[in-house]
UniProtKB/TrEMBL annotation:
Belongs to the ATPase B chain family. It comes from Lophosiphonia teges. Residues 89-157 form a coiled coil. Keywords: ATP synthesis, CF(0), Chloroplast, Coiled coil, Hydrogen ion transport, Ion transport, Membrane, Plastid, Thylakoid, Transmembrane, Transmembrane helix, Transport. This is ATP synthase subunit b', chloroplastic. In plastids the F-type ATPase is also known as CF(1)CF(0). Component of the F(0) channel, it forms part of the peripheral stalk, linking F(1) to F(0). The b'-subunit is a diverged and duplicated form of b found in plants and photosynthetic bacteria.
Length: 158
């Protein structure tokens, strides 16, 4: 029992000396100080920092959105340009093919004309040679006739 009385007397002394749970004006003052610091930190630090972070997040979101839109537009333009390039190549190939065919037709026509002209020249030359041949034969006949008359006269005279 002495021990219990001793502990009770010690406990009563601790309460009077400002023990572990002393409920005087310090506790509400500490609570008010904590609330004031919390409000002050909220106003001076947390709100500006959160505003900066929100602005940054919005800027990043807008940047990503505009970058995505630009990328989509670039992809569409690339597809369009590739399609137009393919069409242009096809058209160029058609133009080249048509030009080659036209050139081939012109060349074959020129060759045919040249062949006809060559045949005409050959025919004209052949006809000219025939005429010259006939003239040569006629002149030879005349000369043969003259020579045969001369031979005949000489033989008859002798």
């Amino acid at each position: 029992m002495n021990i219990a009385i001793y502990f009770l007397s010690e406990a009563s002394e601790a309460t009077t000396k400002g023990g572990l749970f002393d409920f005087n004006a310090t506790l509400p003052l500490m609570a008010l100080q904590f609330l004031a610091l919390t409000i002050l930190l909220n106003l001076l630090y947390y709100k500006p920092v959160s505003l900066v972070l929100d602005d940054r997040e919005e800027y990043i979101r807008n940047s990503l959105t505009s970058a995505s839109a630009s990328l989509l537009k670039a992809d569409e333009l690339t597809k369009t340009y590739e399609f137009e390039l393919a069409e242009s190549r096809k058209n160029a190939q058609k133009i080249i093919k048509n030009a080659q065919e036209e050139a081939q037709l012109i060349v074959s026509e020129k060759i045919k004309e040249a062949q006809k002209e060559a045949e005409k020249l050959l025919l004209d030359a052949y006809q000219e040679l025939n005429i010259q041949k006939e003239q040569a034969l006629k002149s030879l006949e005349v000369q043969v006739d003259l020579l045969s008359e001369q031979i005949q006269k000489k033989l008859l005279n002798n």
